[in-house]
Amino acid sequence: MMYKVKTLRLTGLAGITASLVMFAGDMVLYGGFYGGAASHELTRLTMSEVSVVRLMIGGALGPIGAILYAVGFPP
């Protein structure tokens, strides 16, 4: 029984960490909180001017978050 509790805690922590990593990747790529009607236009303008370093960092955080999501998805 104790093994299951430890496993659930580990997978829960991995899932929370994954969500934070994905959020950080989105913030690195898009650089802010946009909402409403201007969201699409601001996102397009932001992505057209993003530096290569930001693109690489944001793109690298996606797969890391995805792996953590897979670990955080208990069977």
Layout of secondary structure:
Layout: H1 2-30, H2 39-48, H3 52-71
Helix pairs in contact: 1-3
Order of helices and strands: HHH
Q: Count of DSSP helices?
A: 3
Assembly state here?
single chain
State the helical fraction: over 70%
Give me the count of strands.
Answer: 0
User: Using only CA atoms, what is the Rg?
Assistant: 16 Å
- Characterize the main sheet: none
Q: What structural class should be given to the helix and strand makeup?
A: mainly alpha
Low-confidence segments: none
**Share of residues in strands:** under 5%
Distance between the ends: 16 Å
Shape: elongated
The total tally of domains equals 1
Instruction: Return the average pLDDT rounded to an integer.
Output: 82
Q: Could you give a short description of this structure?
A:
With 75 residues, the chain is an all-alpha fold. The protein has helices at residues 2-30, 39-48, 52-71. Helix 1 packs antiparallel against helix 3.
